[in-house]
């Protein structure tokens, strides 16, 4: 482990950060990631112009990420567990997934389609003004499954590898991919670094997330089959395994048509069964929660096993 933390440290700090996130949620004011987003927007406006846009994008990425990760590493080295805990807490988004998606389910169950459309528009980039119930439920389930990896499990993976600075690096990279990683005229070259780096650091965590969804599925063979057969057709090398295995785990159909900026896109179909309904949003949330508990339990088991092994050798 690059963090210098013991397995016991990692286990209790992870459990404490998840508990803090679920208890407090995101800071209502002065959220660090919002400030980072504002800084990144300024860098993009200043550098995304003229020639050599790939190099300018790489420079912008480094200016946005490297100083903050270096500062966090210095603080963690100087002040120890408290900084690691704070960095992981600020990087996690488990409670946020609940707070942004469960109201969509409640609005749909109350037949309040207008509110459901407005709530869904806050979490996805597709057009929601004309979406029906099953399309709104599908958007929410897709967001829960994919962002379960991005906002929770990828963060936990990199915390295990490199402590608080690792968790921060992952979330900053993921945020820049969400801001700059689009294949549009504006970002195709400038955002190349952001998109590729996010793909790279997400590679192991996404597969562990997909494996966890398979392990916790109602029908694990179906979830594994969806992952193996359907994921390669998805445009993202990491979202494909996560969403395909998750859809198979829940027994719902995801993907298909969606409208982005007025353009209808036909995406590969993921999963098996029926299109999702309002209650499937809560089922997707519970799958993310069970996966979180599984990861916490595995970390605790590893810490106990390491302690017993050390005691035995002593």
Automatic annotation (TrEMBL):
UniProt membrane topology term: Multi-pass membrane protein
Q: Where are the transmembrane segments?
A: 59-92, 151-173, 287-308
Where this protein primarily resides, as one coarse class? Answer: membrane
Q: What is this protein called?
A: Cobalamin biosynthesis protein CobD
Q: Which family does it belong to?
A: Belongs to the CobD/CbiB family.
Which organism was this protein described from? Answer: Massilia soli
Provide the protein's localization. Answer: Cell membrane
> What keyword terms does UniProt attach to this protein?
Cell membrane, Cobalamin biosynthesis, Membrane, Transmembrane, Transmembrane helix
Q: Which InterPro entries match?
A: Cobalamin_biosynth_CobD/CbiB
A Pfam family of this chain: CobD_Cbib
Q: What does this protein do?
A: Converts cobyric acid to cobinamide by the addition of aminopropanol on the F carboxylic group.
- Pathway annotation from the record: Cofactor biosynthesis; adenosylcobalamin biosynthesis
């Amino acid at each position: 482990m690059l963090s210098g933390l013991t397995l016991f440290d990692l286990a209790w700090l992870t459990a404490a950060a998840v508990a803090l996130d679920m208890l407090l949620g995101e800071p209502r004011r002065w959220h660090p990631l919002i400030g980072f987003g504002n800084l990144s927007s300024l860098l993009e406006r200043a550098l995304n112009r003229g020639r050599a846009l790939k190099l300018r994008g790489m420079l912008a990425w480094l200016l946005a990420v490297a100083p903050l990760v270096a500062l966090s590493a210095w603080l963690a080295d100087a002040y120890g567990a408290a900084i690691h805990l704070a960095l992981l807490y600020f990087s996690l988004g488990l409670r946020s997934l609940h707070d942004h998606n469960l109201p969509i389910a409640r609005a749909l169950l109350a037949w309040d389609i207008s509110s459901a459309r407005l709530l869904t528009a806050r979490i996805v980039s597709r057009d929601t003004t004309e979406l029906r119930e099953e399309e709104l439920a599908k958007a929410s389930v897709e967001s829960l499954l994919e962002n379960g990896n991005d906002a929770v499990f990828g963060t936990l993976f990199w915390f295990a590898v490199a402590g608080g600075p690792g968790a921060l690096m992952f979330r900053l990279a993921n945020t820049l991919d969400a801001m700059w990683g689009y294949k549009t005229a504006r970002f195709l070259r400038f955002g190349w670094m952001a998109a590729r780096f996010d793909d790279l650091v997400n590679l192991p965590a996404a597969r562990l997330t997909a494996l966890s969804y398979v392990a916790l599925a109602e029908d694990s063979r179906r979830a594994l089959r969806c992952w193996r057969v359907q994921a390669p057709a998805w445009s993202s090398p990491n979202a494909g395994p996560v969403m395909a295995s998750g859809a198979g785990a829940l027994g719902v159909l995801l993907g298909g048509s969606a409208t982005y900026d007025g353009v209808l896109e036909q995406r590969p179909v993921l999963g098996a069964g029926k299109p999702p309904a309002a209650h499937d949003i809560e089922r997707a949330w519970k799958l993310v929660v069970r996966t979180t508990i599984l990861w916490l339990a595995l970390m605790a088991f590893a810490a106990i096993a390491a302690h017993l092994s050390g005691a035995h050798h002593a």
